[in-house]
Amino acid sequence: MLDLFTHDLRLRADPSRVVVRPFHIAWQSNGAGPSRSERLVANVLGMSPGEARHQLEVVLKDFEARHWQTRRVFMTRYDEIEGMLGLNGAEIGDEKRQLIGAYFCHEYSYAAAALMNPSAVPHYDQSGMPQGSLRILMSLRAVGEGHISSVAFREGIITDRQQLKLAPEPPFATATDAVGRGEMEMPSGPVTVYRHRDSTLSGTVIFPITEAQSKGLEDLRIVHFRHDDGSEEWIGTYTAYNGSQIQSELLRTKDFRAFDLVPMTGPAARNKGMALFPRKVGGQYMMIGRSDGENLFLLKSDQLGHWEDGEKILTPTYPWELVQIGNCGPPIELDEGWLLLTHGVGAMRKYSIGGPQLPICTSSHG
Fold first, then answer.
1. CA–CA separation, 223 vs 143, rounded Å?
2. Please, which residues bridge with residue 200 across strands?
3. Where are the domains of the chain?
């Protein structure tokens, strides 16, 4: 049996958590004249060196104190748009390039509306841990301005006395980068994003990048997955939302430096609320899904990225879950079998948590 502990830790929305994001200005002209972007750049290039320096200092005075390596971020943004606008950086001074980059950026409060749906796994780095303590890694759904969801992280320790202690958030947050993606491109397939080499994981935010994700990366459920060959990987399922349609996708990483965001295929992947088992069972990958939006299904597949409809194993039964049930995260393997934490929706849309043992094979080898 598991012991349950009630913790007084609360994670709340925080409008002060901000990152610098690309600001997309129209590239094409509406008529015979230059586009908005071209006119803006021409105005900056027409400034004297002293005026450009002064305007950049005004921007830095307003924003540098709450953003990390602000000048570098502006320069990186300039590099992203240089080719699109036909610019030659060798002929433009650093301050004008940074100022141009600043005009194509905006400040975004990524956790202003909500911070919710945590998912915790053992941290990839357990060095220096005292006996009986465990370093953990927590993913969170951060909901920001415009109700756009992104993935944020926190790190912490569970002590040998079952105390959960989260490390303080770093003062600055940074968004992951998608190296090599053009300004006008919005990929439709798999994409890899990278944490900046000097950024901590607790200060890293993964934002939507594909068309399918454009309105949010929702409800990441992450698991420490062990492959048959003994290799380890952290794999999460999440919902990609584009404003009208949803689909389930995978986040995969081995080092929390590079993150692969991979769409899944098959009828079961067209809904939300999927959760991956931490290993193969009976030689197959297994997933909990909610294919009909109401009941829980056991899904099996030979491919991690393709899922057909499966067997219905749990249905709303009790008053606290009669509207629908869903999972709270990946199944947990115990000596007694597989435990699944579920959430049930009852009257007045009140959410409660259940903990059924799954009616499936419990062998650690099957």
1. 22
2. none
3. 18-108
Structure tokens that stand for 47 in this block: 């400034």
**Helix (DSSP H) and strand (DSSP E) numbers for the chain:** 4, 22
Residue 336 and residue 364 in contact, taking contact as beta carbons nearer than 8 Å: no
Which residues make beta-bridge pairs with 114?
A: 143
Q: Exposure of 290 by Cβ count < 10 A (0-12 exposed, 13-18 middle, 19+ buried)?
A: buried
Q: Cβ(224)–Cβ(122) under 8 Å? A: yes
Element (H, E) at 52: helix 49-63
Strand-pair category, 285-289 with 275-276: antiparallel
**Contact of 358 with 340, CB cutoff 8 Å:** yes
The pLDDT tens digits for 129-180 are 999 999 999 999 999 999 999 999 999 999 998 899 999 999 999 999 887 5
- Biggest CA-to-CA distance, the chain: 74
Query: What pLDDT does 186 receive?
Result: 66
Q: How far apart are CA 213 and CA 97, in angstroms?
A: 30
Give CA–CA dist 98/101, Å, rounded.
5
What's the residue count for the chain? Answer: 366
Sign of CA dihedral 203, 342, 277, 306: negative
Who contacts 295 (Cβ-Cβ below 8 Å, separation ≥6)?
Answer: 312, 314, 315, 316, 324, 325
Q: Given its phi and psi angles, is residue 216 left (phi above 0), alpha (psi -120 to 50 degrees) or beta?
A: left
